[in-house]
Design a protein that fits this description.
Strand content: 5-15%
Number of domains: 1
Distance between the termini: 47 Å
Largest sheet: 4 strands, mixed
Strand order of the largest sheet: 2-7-6-9
Radius of gyration: 18 Å
Shape: elongated
Helix content: 40-55%
Number of helices: 6
């Protein structure tokens, strides 16, 4: 179980639900309000679920990609607010990422947008230089991976046909 910075973990999808909580509808609340509860000590950070991460492309090329985008978003906001520096993550198998056939699930993405208004007051939306650099790096990484993937598909098709 590695200790990781939330900013070093990538999202598995490009969108995040604006509600957070259990699967039962009446226990969900806006994700920003949940963040406010954590920042104002109305909830304890240790009560948050442990984040499950995977390395779909292996140790050499792989990044840490999270399964639960909403929990990762909350940990990243806590890191920006200085409330959480490292988290203990649970490393799980990468098989699920390969079955989904989603390039974003395989390579991860550095940024994800909250669908709708997150609510709450503590959400910092300032975009510093490091976040911009990471977004550009993530886009370049995804582009290179897609080109390599298409190239391998073409080689395979050429091998099958001839």
């Amino acid at each position: 179980m590695p200790f990781l910075l939330p900013s070093d973990i990538y999202y598995s999808k490009r969108s995040i639900s604006n509600e957070y909580g259990t699967q039962l509808l009446w226990y969900k609340k806006p994700i920003g309000e949940y963040l406010d509860d954590l920042c104002c000590d109305r909830r304890n950070i240790s009560d948050m679920p442990q984040l499950q991460v995977r390395r779909p492309l292996g140790r050499m090329f792989g990044r840490w990609v999270a399964d639960d985008n909403e929990t990762l978003w909350i940990y990243r906001q806590l890191e920006k607010n200085g409330k959480c520096m490292q988290i203990q993550a649970d490393q799980v198998s990468s098989f699920k990422s390969w079955i989904s056939l989603s390039l974003t699930a395989l390579t991860g993405t550095i940024s994800a947008e909250v669908e709708g208004a997150p609510g709450g007051n503590m959400c910092k939306t300032n975009n510093n230089f490091l976040d911009t650099f990471r977004k550009i790096h993530s886009l370049a990484y995804e582009y290179i991976f897609r080109v390599m993937y298409l190239f391998c598909c073409l080689i395979f098709l050429y091998w099958v046909i001839f």
